[in-house]
Each structure stands twice: as C-alpha cells, then as structure tokens.
Amino acid sequence: MKSKAAVKRILATLERLYPFDDTCFLHYDHAHPWQLLFATILSAQCTDARVNIVTESLFKQFPTLESFATADIVNIENAVRTTGFYRHKAMHLQQSAQKLLAEHDGKLPSDMEQLTALSGVGRKTANVVCGHIFKIPSITVDTHVMRISGKLGLTNNADPVKIEFDLMEILPKTHWIRFNQQVINHGRQVCTARNPKCHNCELQKECEAL
What topology is assigned to 4-22+138-206 in CATH? Predict the structure, then answer.
C-alpha cells in the first residue's frame, strides 16, 4: 500500500488537475432525488451519456414513483431498452418504486442497509446516492476507480467492496467524494481502459503499472 506521503502527492495532483465542483455525471431533477437512484441503476454496464439520453424521456413518461410503481412493465422495458439488460433494469425500477412508496413514504433513505435493500441497489449505487443527495462521505467504486486505484497502488484487490474499504482506510474522509469525481475524470481523459495516454499522465511517478 502507498505511504501517507505518496497518497498526499496523488491527492494534490488530482486536486490540481480536476478541481472539485460536485458535478454529478448523471442528470436528474434535484427536486426528485429518486431520479438519481434510478439513473444509477440504469448505468450498470452502460455509459452515463447513454443513460442521460434515456432518462431525459423516461422521466417525462414516468414523472413520479407512483407512475413507475403502477406502470405496465413492458412500457418501462421499452423505455430503458437501449441501456442493456433492460428487463432486469425495468423490474428493478418498478420494484424499487413500490418499496419506496410502501416503506419510505416515497422518500429516499440515507441508510446504507435500507438503500441496498431496494431492488437492484448495491453498494456502488447506494454510495452515489449517499454522496450526491445526502453529502455523506462515500467512495463509489466504478470501473475507473477500480482500474486507477490499482495502478496507483492504493489497493491490491479486484473486488469492488474490498477496494472501497481499502480506499476508505487509506484516503482522508474529506477526500472520499472528491476522489470519486477526480479519478473518473482522469479515467475518461487520460488513463483510459484502452490506449491510456501515459505520456500525458501527471501521475506517472506514482503509477505501478508502468
């Protein structure tokens, strides 16, 4: 694992390259925070860009939790088809809507156990909600965070949950949410999964994959 000095250098570089602005990559109406939960469910094995295209029309067709809960499931399937695994995702959306209405009065819980009890919600999705909606320090382990954290020597694990806890141990809590956004930006712009731009990477000295 990296030394505290190395972690400090990595965080300082990320802060300089990607000043934190609390931007959420998935679009949702802040007046309806459940939309972020649903968008994140749809983002599994799908790009944020595609999800944002789909949710723009999806949330017009189904503007409330009640409309999701009572809809013909085929209509939800058709609306989310292009995100992949659409039958499972449509089922998760409907069942989550039903449970939110029945057990939480239509409001998102902030508790990890209650969130992960919703259909199709794992720790990654729950952490997105906790971080963006409730501003609770959390680490979202997506493909970028998995890949880059390993390259930087911040974890030796491949399991997302183990990576999450490794990062929680090594990173200051004040940087958990910032780290998510900054590493995702770095993964999209420089340290891409295919053909990473290593010659342009300002984290080269910290990278253990070179």
Answer: Endonuclease Iii, domain 2 (1.10.1670)
